[in-house]
TrEMBL record:
<feature type="modified residue" description="N6-(pyridoxal phosphate)lysine">
    <location>
        <position position="42"/>
    </location>
</feature>
<dbReference type="InterPro" id="IPR036052">
    <property type="entry name" value="TrpB-like_PALP_sf"/>
</dbReference>
<keyword id="KW-0808">Transferase</keyword>
<dbReference type="InterPro" id="IPR005858">
    <property type="entry name" value="CysM"/>
</dbReference>
<comment type="pathway">
    <text>Amino-acid biosynthesis; L-cysteine biosynthesis; L-cysteine from L-serine: step 2/2.</text>
</comment>
<dbReference type="Pfam" id="PF00291">
    <property type="entry name" value="PALP"/>
</dbReference>
<feature type="domain" description="Tryptophan synthase beta chain-like PALP">
    <location>
        <begin position="7"/>
        <end position="282"/>
    </location>
</feature>
<protein>
    <recommendedName>
        <fullName>Cysteine synthase</fullName>
        <ecNumber>2.5.1.47</ecNumber>
    </recommendedName>
</protein>
<feature type="binding site">
    <location>
        <position position="72"/>
    </location>
    <ligand>
        <name>pyridoxal 5'-phosphate</name>
    </ligand>
</feature>
<feature type="binding site">
    <location>
        <position position="256"/>
    </location>
    <ligand>
        <name>pyridoxal 5'-phosphate</name>
    </ligand>
</feature>
<dbReference type="InterPro" id="IPR001216">
    <property type="entry name" value="P-phosphate_BS"/>
</dbReference>
<dbReference type="GO" id="GO:0004124">
    <property type="term" value="F:cysteine synthase activity"/>
</dbReference>
<comment type="similarity">
    <text>Belongs to the cysteine synthase/cystathionine beta-synthase family.</text>
</comment>
<keyword id="KW-0198">Cysteine biosynthesis</keyword>
<dbReference type="InterPro" id="IPR050214">
    <property type="entry name" value="Cys_Synth/Cystath_Beta-Synth"/>
</dbReference>
<keyword id="KW-0663">Pyridoxal phosphate</keyword>
<dbReference type="InterPro" id="IPR005856">
    <property type="entry name" value="Cys_synth"/>
</dbReference>
Length: 293
């Protein structure tokens, strides 16, 4: 059967923890989003934002797109914009890993690096200035409903299907919050008792892909009532768990996945029974130039 590359976005594997989960009464599954063609969960949102924008006529051939990103969304947007023959500029802090920058450029995107001192907030400010002053068009993953709707349409239904409706807890790192918002909305419609657990960094921890946003930068798509519980993880916990996932489970992923897995395992220890699904949002190979591994 032939597929276009975009047909391969989604339907990622769900694998059960074979080693790290020691509570025999709880099943812990990892959803391996690194199996998307662009290597991360962000393929889903990027595809839905571009495809839906084109279908509505919000995005047109010749549109000059721009987006601030910490990495995975940028790679996904670069890949998908290239397929649709759209020009895109991606704005990232200069301390982003070189694998991310090189991958985006390989897909044909223009990459602009902003000061590491102002982080992703500075990249967002730069992109917004280009929209305001130079006529660029921003997809704005932080405020674009097509972000969370991607997970309402795909991630949530896949988890419900693959656990045969047995899921009791969903654990996801929180960045733009699109994954947790869309998946929560779908799963709660199936069974309102399902607990949605968001993962944030502890104060002063820097974990790529997980954020505790200042109020002025809080994603507009975030609805706090859709999250039942927030667990905080430290940078050290996320790093250690990413390494353990690779060594003990054979799951090669980044720090945000390590953070989510650490929270999921902590949660599993507190439960008498249940079925937990935790998002493994990307692949570890885009962190090889960092000190993660």
């Amino acid at each position: 059967m032939s597929h276009s590359l975009l047909d391969l976005v989604g339907n990622t594997p769900l694998v059960e923890s074979a080693v790290l989960n020691t509570n025999k009464n709880v099943r812990l599954f990892f959803k391996l989003e690194g199996h998307n063609p662009g290597g991360s969960v962000k393929d889903r949102a990027a595809l839905n934002m571009i495809r839906s924008g084109l279908e509505r006529g919000d995005i047109k051939p010749g549109s000059r797109l721009i987006e601030a990103t910490s990495g995975n969304t940028g790679i996904a947007l670069a890949m998908i914009a290239g397929i649709y023959k759209l020009d895109i500029e991606l704005v990232m802090p200069e301390n982003s890993t070189k694998e991310r920058v090189q991958t985006m450029r390989a897909y044909g995107a223009k990459v602009t690096l902003t000061s590491a001192d102002v982080g992703i907030e500075g990249a967002r400010d730069y992109a917004e200035a280009k929209v305001r002053d130079e006529g660029y068009q921003m997809l704005n993953q932080f405020a674009n409903d097509d972000n969370w709707r991607a997970h309402y349409k795909t991630t949530g239904p896949e988890i419900w299907r693959d656990t045969e409706g047995g899921i009791t807890h969903f654990v996801s790192s929180m960045g733009t919050t699109g994954t947790i918002m869309g998946t929560s909305t779908f799963l709660k419609e199936q069974d309102e008792r399902i607990q949605i657990v968001g993962v944030q960094p502890t104060d002063n921890s820097r974990i790529p892909g997980i954020r505790k946003w200042p109020e002025a930068y809080l994603p507009k798509i975030f609805k706090p009532e859709k999250v039942d519980q927030i667990l905080e993880v430290s940078e050290a916990e996320a790093t250690e768990m990413a390494r353990k996932l690779a060594k003990e489970e054979g799951i090669f992923a980044g720090m945000s996945s390590g953070g989510a897995a650490a929270a999921a395992l902590r949660l599993a220890e507190t439960l008498d029974s249940g079925t937990i699904v935790s998002i493994i949002c990307d692949r570890g190979d885009r962190y090889l130039s960092s000190d993660l591994f």
